[in-house]
Amino acid sequence: MEFKVGKKVTMETTKKNTKKKEKHENLKEKRSDELKKKKLSKKLQKKPKEKKVRSSLQKIKLIDDDEEAEKLSQNSDYYSEEEETSGDELHVKGDGVSPSSTVVARKRGDANTSGGDNDDNDSFHSAEESDSSEDEVAPRNTIGEVPLEFYKDEEHIGYDVIGRKIKKKDRKDKLDAFLANVDDKKSWRRFIDEYNDEEVELTKKETKMINRILKGKTPHADVNPYEPYVDWFVWEGKGHPLSNAPEPKRRFIPSKSEAKKIKKYVRAFREGRITFDKPKEKEKVYLLWGDDSSSSGKTRGLSYIPPPKAKLPGHEEAYNPSLEYIPTQEEINSYQLMYEEDRPTFIPTRYTSLRSVPAYANFLKELFARCLDLYLCPRVIKKRVNIDPESLKKKLPDPKDLRPYPTTCYIEYKGHSGAVVTISTDSSGQWIASGSTDGTVRVWEVATGRCVRVWEIGSSIRQVAWNPSPDLPILALSVDQDVLILDTGLGSEEEQGKIKDLLHMQKSTISDESSDAAIVSWLSDDKLGGLRLKHSKTVTSIEWHRKGDYLSTVIPADILISSFVLLISFC
């Protein structure tokens, strides 16, 4: 007898159906005899091996009786490895049996009985012609997405299509499950479908698929994830993309709708219609079984303050102090004239040895006074103020707040060999004069840094002052006891003529009315081309009048003396 897996069932004529019945009955009788023999052999064996019996019963059984099918389904498995791999119905071939004479074996514990030949043929046809697979069968339970927790205390788990209650099945305990795992190698494939309350077993194909997924592979081995890419578009000879529409103008213009929303929120904030949630205060947690007030609150005003320490004896209380600590008789008599509160209680005396020192007469009195002070006088803790030394420093403004200020060197005037001690700018701002300790005075052009004029005075320059009048470009400078007025030669021809007439004056002397001695002598300096005003002492400072007609000088002496030089203005 040979078993083969087939996918198609062909219908024969009614004549062949009768032959099928006869063959079918013969096969059934043979199969029943074999089962009886196996049962007897099982009883005779002292230690029956359930695995061998079950493997023998796992072969395909041709059954027509529902009761016998249920009994055998409880004791053995009805499907073999060939059925798991194929998942299709089985056909039986034999002598005189056509390929169309088939009998369907029960799978997964479901009874498939036939009431007659026509019913069997109809069921075969309906099963083969159906496009649905076993995985796509509609669930038996129709409760939808209702959680199964709602049926936890009920005797059923839901309702079927007709509306009948689906009662809960008895589950195996842990001992039965353990024995099933030991006896049956395929028990690890079975799991409970809690939604339909059924036991489902995975096939070999499904287990292979799960193993491939766990290894990170594709579920089916036939699928190649690295197939060559097929470009469905033609790019050769195309100069533009599929969509070459220009960008709309709205993408470059601010959104008006967003501006309206922002204005709406700003007005709501200003009017107070939209307020921000204030941070919630943390709730204070109190001890349920504790006191009404904490221990720290109770002892806050009763904190321990140590008593002041007694004054330690000094050198004057020694038994043989030095002579400087021993008072004279006059000082002792003056002590008697003092008030008792201010009178010293101990008078230092000298003794030759420590044995000759008598007992202190005021010891008990002073001890009693100290005890009274400790008992009656209040104690106060002096709070020390912890001051950060950095807070005493003057806070300087941030350099960012002082801008604009020069941060880079724009131009540099080089030419002096000594330190530059004084500078002055003319009224137009075009020229600048500088004096240095090397004894030279230089005139520079502000914009270019070009040196226009140099005077070698020979002594250190104290101060340089430019005449504020734009019509008289002259320079005054103080050198030791002299004040020099120099012609810069920077004005026009008319201005230069006025300056020459002004500076080339006759020698004269300016004297004080109250004294015959000359204070300032006015001399012409042909070497420098200007005037020299000699003073009696060193001139420390000079200053022009805002109109440029007067010049004042300051001399450091017992009496400040100011000399005024009158310059005749030709304007």
TrEMBL record:
Chain ranges passing through the membrane: none
**Single GO cellular component annotation?**
preribosome, large subunit precursor
Q: Where is the composition biased (Basic residues)?
A: 37-54
**Record GO biological process:** maturation of LSU-rRNA from tricistronic rRNA transcript (SSU-rRNA, 5.8S rRNA, LSU-rRNA)
InterPro entries referenced in this protein's UniProt entry, alphabetically: BOP1/Erb1, BOP1_N_dom, WD40/YVTN_repeat-like_dom_sf, WD40_repeat_CS, WD40_repeat_dom_sf, WD40_rpt
Locate the region Disordered: 1-144
Q: Which UniProt keywords apply?
A: Nucleus, Repeat, Ribosome biogenesis, rRNA processing, WD repeat
User: Per its record, what are the GO molecular function terms?
Assistant: ribonucleoprotein complex binding
Keyword set includes Cell membrane: no
Gene3D superfamilies noted in UniProt: YVTN repeat-like/Quinoprotein amine dehydrogenase
Domain BOP1 N-terminal: from-to ranges: 151-406
Q: Where in the cell is it found?
A: Nucleus, Nucleolus
* Residue spans of biased composition, Basic and acidic residues class: 1-15, 23-36
Which regions are annotated as WD repeats?
413-454
What this protein is called in its record is BOP1 N-terminal domain-containing protein
Q: Which organism is it from?
A: Chenopodium quinoa
